[in-house]
Amino acid sequence: MLGLDPSLSCTGWGVIRVEGSRITHIANGQLPTPPKMPMAQRLAKLQSGLAAVIAEHAPARAAAEEIFVNKNPQSTLKLAQARGAVLAACGAAGLTVNEHAARLVKKAVVGTGAADKTQVQAMLAVLLPGAKIAGADAADALAVAIADAHLAGRPR
């Protein structure tokens, strides 16, 4: 199971194994793109970086955080473009991608949709003991994967 936290500046990814109610950490990381790099190259870097992650870990499915609208329309457009590159990499690999709202991810992992990043990271330490998490974006991606594991099969 591959969890994704798409972003143009740094896309987080996390791979877990789900066996019944048991969740095991496999790997996680972040795919940063330099802000000075032209947009087309940044998107290509995200797509090829994620394609390499998919090739290495061969997940059966993926889950991504749904897009949210920022106060700044330019930020929303950049996020949408990054999500497009991430979803294209998944689609090219034949992966089904479930999408979840950030509040639903937080509720599934922490128990409240209003949880902050510190609370999510603290719960990840409990759910994935011993996992070395690459950063905040990787933590968010792992949370998306865990939420999807809990929500799979439930009506949306």
TrEMBL record:
* UniProtKB keywords: Cytoplasm, DNA damage, DNA recombination, DNA repair, DNA-binding, Endonuclease, Hydrolase, Magnesium, Metal-binding, Nuclease
GO cellular component term, pick one:
Holliday junction resolvase complex
Taking the first listed entry, what is the main subcellular location of this protein, grouped into a coarse class? cytoplasm
Is Acetylation found in the keyword set? Answer: no
What is the E.C. number?
3.1.21.10
Active-site positions on this chain: D5, E65, D137
Annotated GO molecular function terms are: crossover junction DNA endonuclease activity; DNA binding; magnesium ion binding
Which reaction(s) does the protein catalyse, per the Swiss-Prot or TrEMBL entry? Endonucleolytic cleavage at a junction such as a reciprocal single-stranded crossover between two homologous DNA duplexes (Holliday junction)
Entry-linked NCBIfam families? ruvC
| Designated name of the protein | Crossover junction endodeoxyribonuclease RuvC
Taxonomic source organism: Alteripontixanthobacter maritimus
The organism that produces this protein has a lineage beginning with:
Bacteria, Pseudomonadati, Pseudomonadota, Alphaproteobacteria, Sphingomonadales
Coding gene?
ruvC
